[in-house]
Amino acid sequence: IPGVVGKTEAVQEDSFYNGMLDYPNYTRPAVWDDEEVPEILLSGNDTIIKEWRRRQSVERTLKRRPDIIGRAGIMPYLNYGAYVIEIYNSTLDPKTDNSISEGLKLNLIDTATVCRTYGIERYILIAPNAQQRETIKQTISLLSEEAECKDRPDLKEALNNIKLFGSTQKALAWIEKRSKTDLHKVVVTTKDCKKAVNWLSLKREILLKNYCTVFLFGRECELHSKMIDSANTVLPPISGVKNNLNHLSVRSTIGITLDRFFGQR
Question: Residue 198: what pLDDT?
Fold first, then answer.
Protein backbone atom coordinates (compact mmCIF):
# COMPACT_ATOMS: atom_id res chain seq x y z
CA ILE A 1 0.00 0.00 0.00
CA PRO A 2 1.57 3.35 -1.04
CA GLY A 3 2.69 5.45 1.91
CA VAL A 4 2.72 2.67 4.51
CA VAL A 5 6.47 2.10 4.12
CA GLY A 6 8.52 5.28 3.89
CA LYS A 7 11.21 3.90 1.57
CA THR A 8 9.81 2.13 -1.51
CA GLU A 9 13.14 0.38 -2.16
CA ALA A 10 12.77 -1.47 1.15
CA VAL A 11 9.66 -3.21 -0.19
CA GLN A 12 11.16 -3.88 -3.63
CA GLU A 13 14.25 -5.49 -2.12
CA ASP A 14 12.29 -7.69 0.29
CA SER A 15 12.16 -11.47 -0.17
CA PHE A 16 9.98 -12.73 -3.05
CA TYR A 17 9.20 -9.23 -4.41
CA ASN A 18 11.39 -9.95 -7.46
CA GLY A 19 11.18 -13.70 -7.04
CA MET A 20 14.42 -13.84 -5.03
CA LEU A 21 15.30 -14.01 -1.34
CA ASP A 22 16.40 -10.85 0.45
CA TYR A 23 20.07 -10.15 1.22
CA PRO A 24 21.21 -10.34 4.91
CA ASN A 25 20.52 -7.19 6.92
CA TYR A 26 22.67 -5.80 9.73
CA THR A 27 22.24 -3.15 12.39
CA ARG A 28 24.44 -1.56 15.03
CA PRO A 29 26.72 -2.31 16.81
CA ALA A 30 29.29 -3.33 14.17
CA VAL A 31 30.35 -6.28 16.35
CA TRP A 32 27.99 -8.43 18.41
CA ASP A 33 28.72 -11.80 20.04
CA ASP A 34 31.90 -12.12 17.96
CA GLU A 35 29.94 -11.56 14.74
CA GLU A 36 31.06 -8.61 12.65
CA VAL A 37 29.27 -6.57 10.02
CA PRO A 38 31.04 -7.17 6.66
CA GLU A 39 33.63 -4.49 5.92
CA ILE A 40 31.97 -3.73 2.58
CA LEU A 41 28.84 -2.45 4.36
CA LEU A 42 30.97 -0.06 6.40
CA SER A 43 32.84 1.28 3.37
CA GLY A 44 30.29 3.95 2.46
CA ASN A 45 30.64 3.01 -1.23
CA ASP A 46 27.05 2.67 -2.46
CA THR A 47 28.02 0.94 -5.72
CA ILE A 48 30.06 -1.78 -4.00
CA ILE A 49 27.42 -2.23 -1.29
CA LYS A 50 24.66 -2.61 -3.89
CA GLU A 51 26.68 -5.22 -5.80
CA TRP A 52 27.46 -7.14 -2.57
CA ARG A 53 23.78 -7.21 -1.60
CA ARG A 54 22.79 -8.37 -5.07
CA ARG A 55 25.26 -11.28 -5.03
CA GLN A 56 24.21 -12.22 -1.48
CA SER A 57 20.59 -12.37 -2.65
CA VAL A 58 21.60 -14.67 -5.52
CA GLU A 59 23.69 -16.99 -3.31
CA ARG A 60 21.00 -17.20 -0.62
CA THR A 61 18.27 -18.01 -3.14
CA LEU A 62 20.30 -20.68 -4.93
CA LYS A 63 21.30 -22.28 -1.62
CA ARG A 64 18.00 -22.11 0.25
CA ARG A 65 15.24 -21.89 -2.36
CA PRO A 66 16.52 -22.94 -5.80
CA ASP A 67 12.95 -23.97 -6.63
CA ILE A 68 11.79 -20.35 -6.94
CA ILE A 69 14.38 -19.41 -9.59
CA GLY A 70 12.03 -20.64 -12.31
CA ARG A 71 9.63 -17.74 -11.79
CA ALA A 72 12.21 -15.06 -10.96
CA GLY A 73 13.25 -12.34 -13.37
CA ILE A 74 17.04 -12.53 -13.11
CA MET A 75 18.11 -9.58 -15.27
CA PRO A 76 18.57 -7.14 -12.31
CA TYR A 77 21.06 -9.61 -10.79
CA LEU A 78 23.36 -9.82 -13.83
CA ASN A 79 26.32 -7.45 -14.15
CA TYR A 80 26.71 -7.80 -17.91
CA GLY A 81 23.12 -8.24 -19.04
CA ALA A 82 22.21 -10.41 -22.02
CA TYR A 83 22.20 -10.12 -25.80
CA VAL A 84 20.04 -11.61 -28.55
CA ILE A 85 21.48 -12.55 -31.94
CA GLU A 86 19.10 -13.54 -34.72
CA ILE A 87 20.63 -15.00 -37.85
CA TYR A 88 18.55 -13.60 -40.69
CA ASN A 89 17.22 -15.98 -43.33
CA SER A 90 19.86 -15.50 -46.03
CA THR A 91 17.73 -17.14 -48.75
CA LEU A 92 15.11 -14.36 -48.73
CA ASP A 93 15.41 -10.94 -50.31
CA PRO A 94 12.84 -8.46 -48.91
CA LYS A 95 13.55 -6.01 -51.73
CA THR A 96 12.10 -8.33 -54.38
CA ASP A 97 9.05 -9.57 -52.49
CA ASN A 98 6.53 -7.23 -50.85
CA SER A 99 5.11 -9.94 -48.56
CA ILE A 100 8.62 -10.68 -47.25
CA SER A 101 9.16 -6.96 -46.73
CA GLU A 102 6.00 -6.73 -44.62
CA GLY A 103 7.13 -9.82 -42.72
CA LEU A 104 10.46 -8.15 -42.04
CA LYS A 105 8.71 -5.08 -40.60
CA LEU A 106 6.57 -7.25 -38.33
CA ASN A 107 9.59 -9.27 -37.21
CA LEU A 108 11.64 -6.15 -36.43
CA ILE A 109 8.83 -4.49 -34.46
CA ASP A 110 7.86 -7.61 -32.51
CA THR A 111 11.35 -8.85 -31.67
CA ALA A 112 12.79 -5.42 -30.88
CA THR A 113 9.83 -4.72 -28.56
CA VAL A 114 10.21 -8.09 -26.82
CA CYS A 115 13.94 -7.47 -26.30
CA ARG A 116 13.24 -4.03 -24.84
CA THR A 117 10.55 -5.46 -22.54
CA TYR A 118 12.98 -7.95 -21.00
CA GLY A 119 15.91 -5.53 -20.76
CA ILE A 120 18.13 -7.08 -23.45
CA GLU A 121 21.30 -5.02 -24.04
CA ARG A 122 21.14 -5.28 -27.85
CA TYR A 123 19.03 -7.09 -30.42
CA ILE A 124 21.54 -8.04 -33.13
CA LEU A 125 20.65 -9.15 -36.66
CA ILE A 126 23.13 -11.10 -38.75
CA ALA A 127 22.73 -10.55 -42.50
CA PRO A 128 25.70 -11.82 -44.56
CA ASN A 129 24.50 -10.10 -47.73
CA ALA A 130 25.32 -6.35 -48.00
CA GLN A 131 22.12 -5.64 -49.94
CA GLN A 132 20.07 -7.33 -47.22
CA ARG A 133 21.78 -5.25 -44.54
CA GLU A 134 21.01 -2.06 -46.46
CA THR A 135 17.35 -3.07 -46.87
CA ILE A 136 17.05 -3.90 -43.16
CA LYS A 137 18.74 -0.59 -42.27
CA GLN A 138 16.28 1.35 -44.44
CA THR A 139 13.35 -0.56 -42.94
CA ILE A 140 14.50 0.26 -39.39
CA SER A 141 14.88 3.93 -40.34
CA LEU A 142 11.38 3.99 -41.85
CA LEU A 143 9.83 2.31 -38.81
CA SER A 144 11.64 4.75 -36.47
CA GLU A 145 10.22 7.71 -38.39
CA GLU A 146 6.72 6.21 -38.20
CA ALA A 147 7.14 5.62 -34.45
CA GLU A 148 8.15 9.26 -33.98
CA CYS A 149 5.20 10.54 -36.03
CA LYS A 150 2.80 8.39 -34.00
CA ASP A 151 4.42 9.57 -30.74
CA ARG A 152 5.62 6.12 -29.71
CA PRO A 153 8.95 6.74 -27.97
CA ASP A 154 8.96 3.20 -26.54
CA LEU A 155 8.91 1.66 -30.03
CA LYS A 156 11.53 4.08 -31.31
CA GLU A 157 13.79 3.19 -28.37
CA ALA A 158 13.32 -0.52 -29.11
CA LEU A 159 14.20 -0.03 -32.79
CA ASN A 160 17.27 2.03 -31.88
CA ASN A 161 18.46 -0.98 -29.89
CA ILE A 162 18.88 -3.04 -33.08
CA LYS A 163 22.38 -3.56 -34.42
CA LEU A 164 23.41 -5.11 -37.75
CA PHE A 165 26.43 -7.27 -38.56
CA GLY A 166 27.57 -9.25 -41.57
CA SER A 167 28.71 -12.26 -39.54
CA THR A 168 28.18 -13.87 -36.16
CA GLN A 169 31.93 -13.69 -35.43
CA LYS A 170 31.95 -9.90 -35.82
CA ALA A 171 28.90 -9.56 -33.60
CA LEU A 172 30.42 -11.71 -30.85
CA ALA A 173 33.70 -9.77 -31.03
CA TRP A 174 31.77 -6.49 -30.65
CA ILE A 175 29.83 -7.79 -27.62
CA GLU A 176 33.02 -9.08 -25.98
CA LYS A 177 34.73 -5.72 -26.47
CA ARG A 178 31.71 -3.85 -25.13
CA SER A 179 31.16 -6.06 -22.07
CA LYS A 180 34.89 -6.55 -21.34
CA THR A 181 34.32 -10.13 -20.26
CA ASP A 182 34.07 -13.64 -21.70
CA LEU A 183 30.78 -14.56 -23.34
CA HIS A 184 28.52 -17.51 -22.65
CA LYS A 185 26.99 -18.45 -26.01
CA VAL A 186 23.59 -20.17 -25.92
CA VAL A 187 22.17 -21.63 -29.12
CA VAL A 188 18.41 -22.26 -29.12
CA THR A 189 17.94 -25.18 -31.50
CA THR A 190 15.01 -26.13 -33.71
CA LYS A 191 15.73 -29.86 -33.47
CA ASP A 192 16.88 -32.32 -30.81
CA CYS A 193 20.55 -32.20 -29.89
CA LYS A 194 22.53 -34.55 -27.63
CA LYS A 195 24.31 -31.71 -25.80
CA ALA A 196 21.09 -29.78 -25.05
CA VAL A 197 20.38 -28.88 -21.40
CA ASN A 198 17.24 -27.89 -19.55
CA TRP A 199 16.59 -24.13 -19.53
CA LEU A 200 16.08 -24.04 -15.74
CA SER A 201 19.52 -25.56 -15.12
CA LEU A 202 21.04 -22.93 -17.39
CA LYS A 203 19.11 -20.15 -15.64
CA ARG A 204 20.59 -21.15 -12.29
CA GLU A 205 24.08 -21.38 -13.81
CA ILE A 206 23.80 -17.91 -15.39
CA LEU A 207 22.81 -16.49 -12.01
CA LEU A 208 25.55 -18.28 -10.08
CA LYS A 209 28.40 -17.48 -12.48
CA ASN A 210 27.13 -14.04 -13.53
CA TYR A 211 27.62 -14.70 -17.23
CA CYS A 212 27.38 -12.23 -20.07
CA THR A 213 24.92 -14.40 -21.97
CA VAL A 214 24.38 -14.29 -25.73
CA PHE A 215 21.32 -16.11 -27.05
CA LEU A 216 21.58 -17.16 -30.71
CA PHE A 217 18.41 -17.83 -32.70
CA GLY A 218 17.73 -18.78 -36.30
CA ARG A 219 16.09 -21.26 -38.59
CA GLU A 220 17.56 -24.73 -38.92
CA CYS A 221 19.46 -23.85 -42.11
CA GLU A 222 21.20 -20.90 -40.36
CA LEU A 223 22.06 -22.69 -37.10
CA HIS A 224 24.58 -25.04 -38.69
CA SER A 225 26.53 -27.72 -36.81
CA LYS A 226 29.70 -25.62 -36.41
CA MET A 227 27.74 -22.95 -34.54
CA ILE A 228 26.12 -25.53 -32.28
CA ASP A 229 29.49 -27.19 -31.59
CA SER A 230 31.08 -23.86 -30.61
CA ALA A 231 28.24 -22.92 -28.24
CA ASN A 232 28.79 -23.08 -24.48
CA THR A 233 25.23 -24.31 -24.00
CA VAL A 234 22.51 -25.61 -26.30
CA LEU A 235 18.84 -25.35 -25.41
CA PRO A 236 16.42 -27.93 -26.85
CA PRO A 237 13.48 -26.97 -29.07
CA ILE A 238 10.51 -25.44 -27.25
CA SER A 239 7.89 -28.16 -26.89
CA GLY A 240 4.28 -28.29 -25.83
CA VAL A 241 1.44 -30.81 -26.00
CA LYS A 242 2.23 -31.65 -29.63
CA ASN A 243 5.93 -32.33 -29.17
CA ASN A 244 6.31 -33.64 -32.72
CA LEU A 245 5.27 -30.27 -34.14
CA ASN A 246 7.94 -27.58 -34.09
CA HIS A 247 6.63 -24.83 -36.34
CA LEU A 248 7.14 -21.86 -34.04
CA SER A 249 8.40 -18.72 -35.74
CA VAL A 250 11.81 -17.43 -34.68
CA ARG A 251 10.24 -14.39 -33.01
CA SER A 252 7.89 -16.65 -30.99
CA THR A 253 10.87 -18.73 -29.88
CA ILE A 254 12.73 -15.58 -28.85
CA GLY A 255 9.74 -14.32 -26.84
CA ILE A 256 9.22 -17.61 -24.99
CA THR A 257 12.92 -18.04 -24.24
CA LEU A 258 13.38 -14.51 -22.89
CA ASP A 259 10.27 -14.84 -20.73
CA ARG A 260 11.63 -18.03 -19.16
CA PHE A 261 14.86 -16.31 -18.14
CA PHE A 262 13.86 -12.69 -17.55
CA GLY A 263 10.09 -12.67 -17.06
CA GLN A 264 8.85 -11.96 -13.55
CA ARG A 265 5.90 -13.85 -12.03
Answer: 93
Q: What does the pLDDT average to over 12-36?
A: 74
Residue 179, judged by CB atoms within 10 A of its CB (0-12, 13-18, 19+), counts as middle
Rg of the chain taking only CA atoms, in angstroms: 21
Q: How far is CA 31 from the centre of its chain?
A: 41
Residue 60 near residue 52, CB atoms below 8 Å: no
Topology of domain 8-71 in CATH is: Trp Operon Repressor; Chain A (1.10.1270)
pTM of the model: 0.85
75-262, CATH topology level: Alpha/beta knot (3.40.1280)
Please check whether residue 205 is in contact with residue 74, taking contact to mean a CB–CB distance below 8 angstroms: no
**Other beta carbons less than 10 A from residue 48's beta carbon:** 12
- State how far the Cα of 186 lies from the Cα of 216, in Å rounded to an integer: 6
Q: How far is it, in rounded angstroms, from Cα 238 to Cα 256?
A: 8
Q: ∠ at Cα 107 (102, 111), nearest 5°?
A: 155
Among 222, 159, 233, CA closest to 193 = 233
Q: Cα dist. 16→138, 169, 265 in Å? A: 44, 39, 10
**What are the sequence ranges of the domains in the chain?**
8-71, 75-262
**Closest alpha carbon to 90 in 189, 216, 219:** 219
> Taking residues 218-234, what's their average pLDDT?
79
> What sign has the CA pseudo-torsion 256, 79, 231, 110?
positive
